Predict the 3D structure of the following.
Amino acid sequence: MSKLVPTPSCTVGPFFPTHYFGPTDNDLTLAGDASKRAKGTKIYIGGKVYEAARVARWNAIVEIWQPDASGRFAHPNDPGSSQADPDFMGWGRRSSEDDGYYDFTSVKPGSYKDPLTGAIRAPHINVSIMSSGLMRRLVTTFFFPDEPLNAGDPVFNAIPDAAVRERVLLKPAKLARAPADAVSYRLDIVLQGDNETPFFLD
């Protein structure tokens, strides 16, 4: 029997044309009807994507997904999906700009019981990054500061070093592009090098 040789892998970019994005793809508070907005505390997250040595990474694809303000996903695997906010998108996509900047408008997600472990998950936002030069997409999670449930969240505490956990905590900040009615946070994503963002392993 001959031994199979793995097919060479390719990078995940750059294959991201400008028409890959819609004008409101990074606004999760809109689910189609512009006259209706998602329920909950409106938030704005902005930051930059960096390579090593703090070099800005342009044309990186940043995607986020999260439950609504009540902790429900509009997905059949969620037992409470029928009660999910119909005006909340739950998923968004954004391309980083020439200076690495990315941003999203959303609502603060609610906590929920993990169906696999039974653990109560702290409010969090899941994040995926694809970019030229990366051999696979990178996945991480953003958490909210001063959130009591962080202490028991299994994902947050999977990072043993408290200093490294700080790298996935959103930082309250005044950001110029933030809507006036939103609570704004900043968090930079560092792909490698000093202060690298912790990412999940495959």
Summary: The CA atoms of residues 50 and 56 lie 5 Å apart. Residues 18-190 form a domain with the Protocatechuate 3,4-Dioxygenase, subunit A fold (CATH 2.60.130.10).
